[in-house]
Specification:
By secondary structure, this protein is α/β, with parallel strands linked by helices. It is built from 19 helices and 15 strands.
């Protein structure tokens, strides 16, 4: 008990980061990361529970006490190796996973104080490995290290459709199990939503590229500019000799509010806005002259992580004022606490309990404002959050030259329309067995946002882990 109390007295180590006034006009990563000394001190806070709740809170079941113990001892190579037993994307997860509602939420130290900074420690190890070159796989294959971590080749081929977090997880797991894996990506570079959806200041493109490069060294092949459902069909993949197909295309179809004026110039879906900024490199202006409206007075509708990414991107594109308009209260905001905090530091304004009625434009069809209505919270709805109810006579107008709609995303129907024997639910998402990811089409699995709807990176990875095990069993012993 004395040891536990001693550890509880060590405060959670803060993460050094850029000053708000500096970072709001650049795209460099906001947090700088832990130093080795700080990481070891934070790791020493872990009391190494006999029945660690943190592992049950992790969708991919990383041995969290195991890698933290190695950090405490200064064995960073051992720590990153321990993580990669269960997760081949540690630099990504350490940055964008909502640890505060998963592994850290159930950390026993959080009952009386602050939990161990599990996500920051995971990021530290991934960054240390990348900077030191430790644990990386040499270019010349086959290497002794590759042979040590990969199972014998099975001769079975797997097609993975989509290179987002679930697709990369499936590919990484199956390549280690000895299968031949090819990932098909619609865009020109791998990474999926990690590339086109998450801004540079939150997840640098070089981080994603390094994780993908690790997969390539393991033997995963990537075919880009390949739109499965148009360039090639699922049935044609089987004809080409693939024994199993995984569909992890995400939820890339924008959801609009269906109010008047959404077709005005200056109204974007968050999907388009972030893709233009991230994939089309608007953030590298003037080197890249990406066609995007650099509004001075921007409103963003929604309060999830994508909304926060859009709003903080608008600031960095030169906006003087950026407002989040959300129909519920602060307690219901789904964005990560850290993202809300960073946004507030950077100058975002939050207009809560308000919802749009219609957009206003000028004679040239350009956005000039939005008409909204005040809301109050009623009884909880199916999401468990209190339902917003309009207040009569509370309408108001506010000026804006750019609006970003970030209220969710749906399933892109391109692949599923071309594959009619894959059954869908009423929202257009693929119906798949919860435990295995099997679809109604033999030999086809699905997971991530195309099944669940828009969710988090780590949940998509958790689904990928389950699917990979099911595909492996199918290829070895049958459906």
């Amino acid at each position: 008990m004395e040891e536990k109390e001693k550890k509880e007295k060590i405060p959670r180590q803060p993460m050094p980061e850029q000053e708000p006034k500096v970072r709001v006009r650049n795209y460099k990563e906001v947090p700088f990361g832990y130093s080795p000394e700080t990481a070891m001190l934070e790791a020493s806070r872990c009391i190494q529970c006999k029945n660690p709740g943190c592992m049950t809170g992790c969708p991919v079941e990383i041995d969290i006490p195991g890698f933290i113990a190695r950090i405490k001892e200064g064995d960073f190579a051992g720590g990153i190796a321990k993580i990669k037993e269960r997760n081949l994307l540690p630099a990504v997860c350490g940055r964008v996973c909502p640890q505060e509602v998963q592994c850290e939420k159930v950390c026993i130290l959080g009952k009386k104080g602050e939990p161990v900074a599990i996500g920051r420690l995971e990021r530290f190890l991934a960054d240390w490995e990348r900077s030191e070159g430790a644990g990386s796989i040499p270019e010349n294959e086959p290497s002794a290290e590759t042979k040590a971590i990969k199972e014998p080749l099975t001769g079975k081929r797997v097609a993975v459709v989509g290179s987002g977090p679930s697709g990369l997880t499936v590919a990484g797991d199956l390549i280690l199990k000895g299968h031949d894996v090819t990932v098909f990506e619609a865009f020109q570079i791998p990474g999926g939503v990690l590339i086109y959806g998450i801004p540079e200041f939150r997840l640098p493109k070089a981080i994603v590229a390094a994780e993908v490069d690790y997969m390539k060294k393991l033997g995963v092949k990537f075919e880009c500019d390949m739109v499965v459902g148009a360039t090639v069909s699922v049935d044609e993949l089987f004809e080409q000799g693939y024994g199993a197909v995984y569909v992890g295309v995400g939820a890339g179809l924008p959801v609009f509010m269906n109010i008047p004026g959404e077709n005005l110039i200056g109204v974007y879906s968050a999907n388009e806005y972030l893709t233009r900024s991230n994939l089309m490199k608007a953030y590298l202006f003037p080197e890249y002259d990406t066609p995007i409206i650099r509004g001075k007075n921007v409103v963003v509708f929604g309060a999830g992580n994508v909304a926060m990414d859009s709003a903080r991107t608008a600031l960095r594109l030169g906006a003087d004022q950026v407002r989040i308009i959300y129909r519920r209260s602060r307690e219901e905001m789904p964005a990560r606490i850290e993202e809300i905090h960073h946004g507030e530091e950077e100058g975002l304004e939050f207009h809560l309990l308000a919802a749009p009625l219609n957009f206003i434009g000028d004679s040239d069809g350009r956005l000039t404002g939005v008409r909204c209505q005040r809301m109050e919270l009623g009884e909880p709805d199916e999401s468990g959050r209190r339902r917003p109810v309009p207040i009569k006579g509370s309408e108001f107008e506010t000026e804006c030259d750019t609006a970003v709609i970030s209220i969710g995303a749906g399933a892109n129907p391109l692949l599923t329309k071309a594959t009619p024997d894959i059954q869908l639910n009423r929202w257009g998402n693929i119906i798949a067995e919860p435990e295995t990811g099997k679809t109604t089409k033999k030999g086809v699995w699905a997971g991530g946002d195309i099944v669940t709807g828009q969710a988090t990176v780590i949940l998509a990875m958790g689904a990928g882990r389950q699917v990979a095990n099911s595909i492996h069993n199918y290829l070895i012993i049958g459906w």
